[in-house]
Amino acid sequence: MLEVVLAGIGAGVGVLLLGNYLVVRASLSPPRTPFFLTPRDLGLPFQHVAFPSRDGVRLQGWWIPAPKPIGVAILCHGYLMNRCEPLPVAKALWEVGFHCLVFDFRASGKSEGKITTIGDLERLDVLSAVDLAECTAPGLPIVVYGASMGAAAALLAAAEDTRIRAVVADSAYARLSDAIEDWWRGSLGNGAALLLKPSQWIGTLLTRRSPQQVAPEEVVAQIAPRPLLIIHGTHDRLITPHHAQRLFERAGEPKRLWWAEGCEHVQARFERPDEFYPLVVDFMLNAIKTKAQA
Length: 294
What we know:
Elements: H1 2-28, E1 47-52, E2 58-64, E3 71-76, H2 87-94, E4 98-103, H3 122-136, E5 142-147, H4 149-160, E6 164-170, H5 176-188, H6 190-195, H7 198-207, H8 216-219, E7 228-233, H9 242-250, E8 255-260, H10 268-271, H11 273-293
Parallel strand pairs: 3-4, 3-5, 5-6, 6-7, 7-8
Antiparallel strand pairs: 1-2, 2-4
Helix pairs in contact: 1-7, 3-4
């Protein structure tokens, strides 16, 4: 009888671990979202660009040249998305004089790569985008906008590269391990989240990096004295608002936290556009003016 019980327990554990492995594999190698928008659709001029990330992964993007440039804005999409996602934000910044670079992170869109690390190695992609911006438009200040995963990658990159003049982090996580638990709870409920606890250990084995170590909150203070704007929806169930509060508390001045009242994950630009776009544009303009005056 004991052998039967132990065999049953072993089989149950095996099924649990297999289920977690399949979930992790699907999360690290999700289907690529097809393009749903181009600069041409928004009346923007553009050029196709390709460039290597810091570890050699080939990235693809669009360079959107401004006629009278005052700076370069790099725009970083979220998980499961591609370069189409931040195009409306790019248009708003292009209209006030920013060259814009939108690109696909590794394993997204048209870029190379088989695995996404949801912010960790994506920081290398942001750094390489900064390299491209500096080479293409030398002497112009560089600012970065990121959404969700892109926001986390932007924070990590800005903490180690002072060429990034300012950052807008829209719906970023403070620590990836906590965000993963939030995603499971928000999407599947507390019971499923508990069953998926082993997914983080499996993810660590597959990526050789613990999600506990991918933590913008640990390095966000290094961005100061460069300006930081944190945007977060008060009804975000995927990356809950406490992530924004933790980031804000650890960041140095100058910093600002805008709560998008009633908005869910990365939805402020859709649900509160009359506040979102002027806020982002004014922040970026003031960031490059403040540095120029200094």
